[in-house]
Write a structure and sequence with these properties.
It is a single chain. With 332 residues, the chain is of the alpha/beta class. It has a single domain, classed as Rossmann fold (3-Layer(aba) Sandwich), CATH 3.40.50. 45% of the residues lie in helices and 12% in strands. The chain contains 13 helices and 9 strands. A 5-stranded parallel sheet has the order 2-1-3-6-7, with helices on both faces. A hairpin with a 2-residue loop joins strand 8 and strand 9. The longest helix has 26 residues. The protein is globular. The N and C termini lie far apart (80 Å).
């Protein structure tokens, strides 16, 4: 009798987990919040033949860069360039490399790639992370990755940024349903020059220091994770492959570190800084590339939407100004 109960419970758990796994896998989009098929529409379009293309690539940290503003600034001296901000939330190098052939097919003149320590994290908790809030429960992101997803040899991104993935998924379902029923859906705040990121009013607000301090304490605490050494880091390996491929195809490359608020920088564990610096040093050495560091350039300025994102705001254009100036350096 007891054996039958154990077998029944085990079967029920296996069946439930299988359904959960298949559902989450259906939301994963191969690690990208923007499906590959949707990205193809951009990369394989007929671009203006008389314009040289500049692609700005990275995660949500790159999203605030105003591609239209940067293009206008460059156009004051160089008339034949068009700038695209191709940021995608949580799109780490091992995800971005899946579109490498598409990027090459679009024949950009310059690639501007923004990176941060979080792009190279493994899903392993840091022993010396003093920002953790004591809890008897495991970190769900670590738990699901290390126990469930590795068991099935899968890496699902749902737990990298649950809020953003959930909202994106809900929008997709609502959008599809509305199309079928002929209802109107609120238009995404995207543009031809920023095709992959939906800008909301929340992204536009510049926050006070007290707001940012509270966010760091309540939301960012305990979020730091191990960074594997370069030779054993899949994101670093992917980034190197992309840089080499770009250079082999005569595409100019700018690598910059994305800006963070002083509250975030102060709490970043030393081990994280050391591992990230190892990665930056290897890029500089192997590819003869100067890393343009913006990590702490605006750290005390009133330009922040949260502790790791500049606000999408006319009063925060200094970030776009600096990237535009760097682009003009290599154009000249």
């Amino acid at each position: 009798m007891n054996r039958k109960i154990v077998v029944s419970v085990g079967f029920a758990f296996l069946l439930s987990f299988s359904f959960l796994f298949l559902f989450l896998k259906s939301l994963d989009n191969e690690g990208m919040l923007v499906p590959i098929e949707e990205q193809k529409k951009f990369y394989l379009q007929d671009f203006p033949a008389d314009k040289k293309k500049i692609f700005i690539i990275g995660t949500s940290h790159v999203m605030p860069l105003n591609s239209t503003y940067i293009q206008e600034k460059i156009s004051n001296e160089k008339k034949n360039y068009v700038v695209y901000n191709l940021s995608i939330g949580t799109s780490e190098p091992k995800d971005r490399i899946k579109t490498l052939d598409l990027i090459l097919a679009a024949e950009p003149e310059i690639i501007v790639y923004g990176i941060a320590e979080r792009d190279f994290r493994a899903n392993i908790e840091l022993d010396d992370d003093d920002t953790k809030i004591p809890s008897i429960f495991p970190n769900p992101q670590i738990f699901f990755h290390s126990i469930l997803w590795q068991f099935a040899y899968q890496e699902l991104t749902l737990f990298e940024n649950p809020k953003f993935v959930t909202l994106t998924t809900i929008y997709k379902f609502v959008s599809n349903d509305s199309k079928e029923n002929g209802n109107k859906v609120e238009k995404k705040q995207i543009s031809a020059n920023r095709p992959f990121y939906d800008i909301s009013d929340e992204h536009k607000e510049i926050r006070t220091y007290e707001y940012l301090k509270n966010e760091m304490q309540k939301q960012r605490a305990g979020s730091f994770q191990e960074i594997n050494v370069p030779y054993n880091n899949p994101d670093f390996i992917s980034l190197k492959e992309m840089i080499k491929t770009f250079q082999d195809n005569d595409i100019k490359v700018i690598i910059f570190t994305t800006p963070h608020h002083e509250l975030y920088i102060e709490k970043t564990p030393e081990k994280t800084n050391e591992r990230f610096q190892l990665i930056l040093d290897e890029i500089t050495s192997e590819f003869d590339l100067e890393i343009y560091s913006l990590l702490d350039k605006y750290s005390t300025m009133e330009v922040w939407g949260d502790v790791s994102h500049i606000a999408v705001n006319p009063n925060a254009l200094i970030y776009s100004d600096d990237i535009a100036n760097k682009i003009m350096e290599i154009i000249d």
